[in-house]
TrEMBL record:
Gene3D superfamilies, alphabetized: MetI-like
Subcellular location: Cell membrane
Name of the molecule in the record: Amino acid ABC transporter permease
Annotated TM spans: 219-243, 255-278, 290-309, 366-384, 390-411
Organism, as annotated: Collinsella ureilytica
Membrane topology field: Multi-pass membrane protein
CDD domains reported for this sequence: TM_PBP2
Sequence segments annotated as region (Disordered): 422-454
Taxon lineage: Bacteria, Bacillati, Actinomycetota, Coriobacteriia, Coriobacteriales
Skewed-composition ranges (Basic and acidic residues): 436-445
Protein family membership: Belongs to the binding-protein-dependent transport system permease family. HisMQ subfamily.
All residue ranges annotated as the ABC transmembrane type-1 domain in the record: 220-411
Keywords attached to this entry: Amino-acid transport, Cell membrane, Membrane, Transmembrane, Transmembrane helix, Transport
């Protein structure tokens, strides 16, 4: 075995430590002397929404690009560049560069500079270098992104007073929606002379802008589906509840009559708007948290049940008492009489009134817009806030009429048929106009009893 030499081992260790220290020192010095790839910090890169409705950035339509950067404290910037992706277009007209400073960047100055378009690259050259650590805002108008849309990436660069050029990191991407058929149709309408002449009239532009009608339809249609989803669930739920309350109202037990009366009078005696506010803002405070849709369904169903209770009660009481007496004389019990004789006739008589109540409930879904439920009026309200035009409300009215007018016609035809069945003859076309007036009046009285009787 070779003998241990402390001097040799210590010398080797010292040499290794010296080499390691020298390498670390070299790396440290190199890091200090090296110029960073990009010290310019991007604070904002965005495009102005250019859709007629909503807050989307749509490809193929002019928008404004805003780019804000913060230079390092030791950097003196003399130029900037923006490179747009293929398929984009822009213009140097009205382009602007602004220096922001002071508290909350409220102080502005506009240095002299030149904007030069070189293919997809926009070059900005300052006539005098910017102050060190400057905050710069660049605004470019007339920018059109590719019609296909997607996440659009824009490349940035800058030049220092020393002549060194660097790329800007962290530019991010801009979400651009592809041009749809609706967007193309709206753009086509805007260029039509008759549309321009139409919109030259202030009243027509505010209430019936053809371009806004086209662009609002698909958006408000989403709210139309939500309103239908609410009423198609709430109304079937309200029918059994309302019928049960009507049986309680005519019950011989005072307790049942009292409970039903309190509920009906409380719901019918307060505005539906107030009930919605209590449900949406009061229940969360009590620890009950439900989504907007189920809570909207529950509120609408509870409100409608109170009115249906009176409709059913009036329908039951409209059946001649002689029918009940005849049934009992045949040996039928009270329950059998109710199930086999009274209830079928009641539902038959109140079908037109039930349809009217469905129409009212569908229109009352508009009250849910006050608590943020995205139904017809809420979508229309959002578009109005963006455009300043009343046209979306007119489009919303169209969607309500799309349901209410056919149902109103159905009620009229149903009343005519019921009138024909009661008189023993088949109704003719003229009955739709005046032959069923007496029966229509009977159903109107029944509806009035359901809505106003206590």
């Amino acid at each position: 075995m070779k003998p241990f030499d402390a001097r040799t081992t210590g010398g080797r260790l010292s040499t290794r430590l010296a080499l390691t220290a020298a390498a670390v020192l070299c790396l440290f010095v190199q890091a200090l002397l090296a110029t960073p790839a990009s010290a310019l910090e991007v604070t904002r890169l965005s495009a102005q929404p250019n859709a007629d409705t909503g807050s989307d950035v749509v490809g193929g339509i002019d928008t404004r690009l805003t780019w804000e950067v913060q230079a390092a404290e030791d950097e003196v910037v003399s130029g900037l560049t923006l490179t747009f992706p293929e398929g984009s277009s822009y213009t140097t007209e009205d382009a602007r560069l602004t220096f922001l400073s002071g508290q909350d960047l409220m102080d502005r100055s506009f240095p002299r500079c030149t904007f030069t378009a070189d293919g997809q690259t926009l070059a900005i050259r300052l006539q005098e270098p910017a102050p060190a650590g400057v905050y710069v805002r660049v605004e470019v108008y007339g920018v059109q992104f590719p019609a296909a849309g997607g996440d659009i990436t824009i490349e940035g660069g800058y030049t220092l007073a020393s002549g060194q050029t660097h790329e800007v990191d962290g530019m991010g991407a801009i979400a651009v929606r592809g041009t749809s058929i609706v967007d193309r149709l709206a753009a086509s309408l805007e260029s039509q002379p008759w549309v321009q002449a139409w919109n030259a009239n202030r009243f027509l532009r505010l209430f019936a802008n053809p371009v806004l009608i086209v662009t609002s339809l698909p958006i408000i249609f989403s709210g139309f589906l939500m309103a239908l989803a609410i009423v198609l669930v709430a109304f079937p739920l309200a029918i059994p509840v309302g019928f049960g309350l009507s049986l309680m109202r005519i019950s011989k037990l005072k307790v049942l009559r009292a409970l039903a009366s309190v509920y009906v009078n409380l719901i019918r005696g307060t505005p539906a708007f107030l009930q919605i506010y209590i449900a949406f803002f009061g229940l969360p405070l009590a620890g009950v948290n439900l989504g907007n849709y189920p809570l909207g369904v529950i509120v609408m169903a509870m409100n409608s049940a109170a009115y249906l209770c009176e409709i059913f009660r009036a329908g039951i009481q409209s059946i001649p008492t002689g029918q009940g007496e005849a049934a009992r004389s045949l040996g039928m019990t009270g329950m059998q009489t109710m199930v086999s004789i009274i209830i079928p006739q009641t539902f038959r008589n109140v079908i037109p009134t039930l349809t009217s109540e469905f129409i009212l409930l569908f229109k009352d879904t508009s009250l849910l817009a006050a608590v943020g439920v995205m139904e017809i009026v809420m979508y229309a309200k959002t578009i109005v806030a963006t455009t300043g035009s009343i046209t979306p409300y007119v489009v919303a009215a169209f969607f309500y009429l799309l349901v209410t007018l056919p149902l109103a016609g159905f009620v009229s035809r149903l009343e005519a048929r019921l009138h024909g069945a009661d008189t023993g003859r088949i109704p003719s076309d003229s009955d739709d106009e005046d032959g069923h007036e007496d029966k229509a009046q009977d159903h109107a009285d029944l509806a009035l009893a359901g809505k106003d009787a206590s």
